[in-house]
Write a structure and sequence with these properties.
The chain has 14 helices and 17 strands. By secondary structure, it is α+β, with helices and mostly antiparallel strands. The structure holds adenosine-5'-diphosphate. Adenosine-5'-diphosphate (ADP) binds next to helix 12 and helix 14.
């Protein structure tokens, strides 16, 4: 082949190459550039050939070129893949990737720098996208870590791959055991068939939402609400699953409580009504006034009204619509009156031990009277007939103390922490005595809203002592 043709080809290749070729003196002065570089930068050859390469860079780029790039090139003889932003003739920027080689003479002195420059527009965009994706992934990871719901990711066969802290807390497994588990260990769905049936929509790419139960490391069951999402690979096949598992045991407990309440309320309200109707019908049939029937009717009506009041008050407490109208109140006077007017005072001997001087607190009279009534009613209700109930009042160090002591059946230690819960009744007495399990719940709330507290001491067969402490008025 003719040498001239080859030279022309080489020249074309040089000028039209898909990269910029730039030759400069060791101080950066440009001595030769190819056509591609001119097109990219928008300058004419004449405009470039007296300038120094670093003058084409941004301020930060120029500093980097002079302080890092050039010394490195002198030291190593070559520098590869460094990114710069070239400022084009029209002021816009061109991200580039630069490789340089230093030519030296026989004495080792630098004479020429040959650089190859690649456009880095796509690469820069790609890098930015990568950065963005990484930030998004990091944010998502933070959400997963901080989520109060348990989040577990599994392979298609259910083996656990990743999990968050809430999953460790909810299921009680250590990080070492999680990788040995499958989703079915955590959510058994009533056996293999149940699991397969529940998960079936996932294999068609559909998410699954279900309320079920989970099993903890200690074997305990927990009520959970689960959302499982399938993840697909490039070919659209399900490759992994993510399960978000929320603990709904509290919600379930409230639902159970509501059901129990409905059963209790209808029973408690119905019993006095049945008695009232029975005695009223008796008088109607006999067409005769009967003192005893009327007494029962009045007593049952009173009980019914009391229960309705308690239910209303409990619902006000629940809805936080419970208000106090405070004024000065003498606890000694309240105790005396409560002991004499107690409905059940006939069944027990109620003794009052109070100081001669008033013990004054700042309180809502009606509510504090209710506290006395509730505690006295319980003391009598849970004592054998003919027992003694003592009410005493004292004051010391700015604190007023009310103690109601009975010699009744006492309370088991296991029941004590639950006494003040709504609707709680000790199982051993629940069948034998009437009650809605609201008295102590209301009592504690009233006392605490007055800045006080209620304490219990009790011994089975010996009796119980309820102590109410309240801040005394100045
Ligand atoms: P109720 O008396 O209507 O059941 P309370 O809230 O007043 O509801 O009391 C809750 C439970 O605490 C009772 O069911 C009973 O088991 C227990 N209890 C309360 N006071 C006494 C007491 N003085 N002696 C023994 N048990 C008591």
């Amino acid at each position: 082949m003719n040498d001239n043709v080859l030279n022309d080809c080489l020249q074309d290749l040089y000028e039209q190459a898909p990269c910029g070729y730039v030759f400069s003196l060791p101080d950066g002065t440009l001595v030769r550039v190819n056509q591609t570089f001119l097109i990219w930068t928008g300058y004419s050859r004449a405009e470039l050939l007296s300038r120094r390469f670093q003058e084409l860079l941004t301020v930060a780029g120029k500093m980097f070129f002079e302080n890092q790039y050039a010394p490195l090139l002198r030291m190593q003889g070559a520098v590869q893949e460094v990114t710069f932003d070239i400022v084009r003739r029209d002021g816009s920027r061109l991200p580039v990737l630069m490789n340089s080689v230093l030519r030296v003479d026989a004495t080792g002195s630098p004479i020429l720098v040959a650089s190859t420059i690649f456009r880095a527009v796509e690469r820069r965009a790609y890098e930015q996208e990568l950065l963005l994706a990484r930030t998004r992934a990091e944010h998502l990871a933070e959400v997963v870590t901080a989520s109060s719901d348990a989040i577990v990711t599994c392979a298609r066969d259910g083996s656990v791959r990743r999990w968050n802290l809430s999953a460790e807390r909810l299921f009680g497994y250590t990080p070492a055991t999680f990788p040995t588990l499958t989703l079915r260990d955590l959510l058994p769905f009533e056996g293999a068939a149940g699991y397969e049936r529940t998960m079936r929509p996932l294999w068609q790419g559909e998410p699954v939402h279900v309320d079920t139960f989970g099993v903890r490391n200690d074997g305990k069951r927990i009520d959970v609400s689960v959302g499982v999402t399938p993840h697909t690979d490039e070919l659209g096949a399900v490759s992994s699953l993510s399960a978000i598992i929320s603990d709904i045991s509290e919600r379930r407990a409230i639902e159970r409580l509501q059901q129990e309440f409905l059963a209790m309320a209808s029973h408690e309200l119905r019993t006095p009504l049945v008695a009232i109707r029975g005695y009223a019908q008796l008088m109607q049939r006999r067409k005769a006034y009967n003192e005893q029937s009327l007494e029962t009717i009045v007593a049952q009506t009173r009980q019914l009204a009391g229960l309705i009041d308690d239910l209303l008050l409990a619902s006000q407490i629940e809805a936080n619509r419970f208000e106090l109208r405070k004024g000065e109140l003498d606890l000694v006077a309240v105790a005396r009156r409560a002991a004499t007017t107690s409905v059940l005072s006939d069944d027990c001997d109620i003794r009052v031990d109070v100081p001669d001087d008033p013990v004054v607190i700042l309180a809502d009279r009606q509510r504090i009277e209710q506290v006395f009534a509730n505690l006295l009613t319980n003391a009598v209700k849970y004592s054998p007939d003919g027992g003694t109930v003592e009410v005493s009042i004292s004051k010391s160090n700015g604190v007023a103390r009310v103690r109601i002591r009975d010699q009744g059946i006492g309370i088991r230690e296991v029941d004590i922490p639950h006494l003040f819960e709504r609707f709680y009744r000790a199982p051993d007495v629940a069948q034998e005595t009437k009650g809605a399990g609201l008295g102590l719940y209301i009592t504690q709330r009233i006392v605490e809203d007055h800045g006080g507290r209620v304490d219990v001491e009790s011994e089975i067969g010996q009796g119980s002592t309820f102590t109410v402490t309240l801040p005394a008025a100045e």
